[in-house]
Amino acid sequence: MTTGSLTAGRTRFRLPRKQIPVLATLALLLVMYGIGVSQYTAFSNVQVIFNVFIDNGFLLVVAVGMTFVILTGGIDLSVGSVVAMTAMVSAWLLQEGLPAALVLVIALLIGPTLGLLMGCVIHFFEIQPFIVTLAGMFFARGMCTFISGSSIPITDGFWTRMSQERIGDPKGNFVSISVLIAFAVVAVAAYTLAYTRLGRNVYAIGGNPQSALLMGLPVGRTRIAVYTISGLCSAIGGILLSFYTLSGAPLIAVGMELDVIAAVVIGGTVLTGGAGYVFGTVLGVLVLGVIQTLITFDGSLNSWWTKIVIGGLLFVFILLQRLIGIRYK
Amino acid sequence: MNDTMSRFRTMTGHRLFWPAAVLFAMLAANTIYRPGFLSIELKDGHLYGTPIDILRLSAPLILVALGMTLVISTGGIDLSVGSLCAISGAIACMYISKQPDQNSLGVVVTALALAMGVSLVLGAWNGVLVAVIGIQPIIATLILMVAGRGLAQLITEGQIITINSEPYRAIGLGHALTLPLAIFIALAAALLVAAFTRRTALGMIIESVGGNSVASRLAGIRSSRVIFLAYVISAACAAVAGFMMTANVSSADGNAAGLWVELDAILAVVIGGTSLAGGRFFLSGTIIGALIIQTLTTTVYAMDISPQTSLLFKAVVVIAVCLIQAPAFRARFSRRRRNVPPPAPVADKPKEQVPA
């Protein structure tokens, strides 16, 4: 804003330009929804939207954590494996007969601990986030199969209740508790990024780490914090996934990190860091969810089209970001 | 005394020392665990044995890692190699499966040429995104990593295509001079890349671009062209690796072929001493890195541990290797050691920071 006062004439154009990626995502979402409604009568059902949230609640939570990391200019490849490990550990501990509350606490502690460790290695030893989180990914996935080679069902009362509870309106449309948890995470994250010191530091580091350091911002602490937050979000995502599937499987959520990164990018967060919104990430996850739904509705389209379409969208949005980036300079 | 110390230090200071030591230690541990590990026998004019198996199975990884080395030394990264392996294998197998005579050499050569052509185009796509449009390499190649798997499945229509072609099978399982053909293919590729980069100025140009692409552009090197070339070479290497993987099992599976190979390849490059930040690259180190990874995988198999759990060991190796190479970690470590005997030894090591 302060720079805006210097070049007052251009301010009016600059602000919307920053929102272009998010607006483009919103437009895309509306177009896809419009296509769905015009093609399939059942698509206009409100429950379809709710189902997108129910099926992607865990993805949303993980993507929110990834948004923090990408905003600082980093990347976290471990999320998919941490989600799987959390679900696996929960299922295993429940099978061993531990009380649900204790399992929940343990499961929610593993992700942030791993994130904290990775953040420390990244910060103190100056190793690239890409390679550290890759090791974290190997580690978490290895732990999954170390616990068990096959999937473990969850029969615990609390879990099944969380899984089956439906919160609906009188018309019969409903969401699961997971969706509410996901929304809560989104709200907390959006508040943190927009209104807290941590949020401002995240944007500052992503914008320019050197300047942030010279300004006296706690670069190291913030950087470690974002990986811990991402770990926590992955852990919550893992719990939500275990609510959703009522089991822990060693090969669940393979490749999820790519979906998450894709969602964040499609949501308009710039991969070099410094610009983006949690709201955009929500839209990005919705775009992926609606693609899936469209492909499910159209029986003839095959699942590989999802990958190709996501790849194409990634390309378009990265190109868009790049073009806007050039104009910024 | 001082002489042996300094000699020891020069030896451990050699960039191939630690990778080679790790490889040697792993082979030694295997031999202790299973005394027959190193034995090689001659059967039907072919050599058999675990070491030969390790060499044969590491051939695709060596190929992918060679291309990856060049890309990484330009300061980039290529995440799409796994998908490229799947695509090249899928195209080759698809073409062969449609022909009446699958055993004809002409058919196989056409299939290979077709698949290689497509791979080169896809490599050029990566190259354009990175070098011309200027997208971050990790993201530019992420596009093809995601979409490429879909393309491979589209080509095979989601099926696993099985073929019955002797010449094609030979790429993965054939023998020459009593050794598996795959070893020779990997060796040939390594020599070719080494000749291009070490006998011509290309290697130096790549290193200068990786060191500082703006500076080398100002010095008159067409940086973008060099970066572009690195991605095309990487795609070509991945394509050959894809042939090998599919030939090994005589079938193409768009979903599983080349899965995680990009991560293994990056790991091999890093173990080999090439910095992920770009700059100097070490092809021989990469090959040793690939051998270490394959030996690790073989060891885990031999010990009856689930293959997925081998990821745990890989995680440990990645972190250990990166820590050893990280200047920040070394600085901490050496500072602490120097603190113990107050008069620091004269042999200070400012040179350690050079291969960054």
From TrEMBL, chain B:
User: Which molecular-function annotations from GO does this UniProt entry contain?
Assistant: transmembrane transporter activity
What UniProt keywords apply to this chain's record, in alphabetical order?
Cell membrane, Membrane, Transmembrane, Transmembrane helix
Q: What is its main location?
A: membrane
- Enumerate the transmembrane spans: 16-33, 54-73, 79-97, 104-122, 128-152, 173-195, 226-245, 257-274, 281-303, 309-329
Q: Report the membrane topology from the UniProt record.
A: Multi-pass membrane protein
Question: One Pfam family from the UniProt entry?
Answer: BPD_transp_2
Q: Name one GO cellular component term.
A: plasma membrane
Organism domain of life: Bacteria
Location in the cell reads: Cell membrane
Return the protein name: ABC transporter permease
The record lists the organism as: Micromonospora profundi
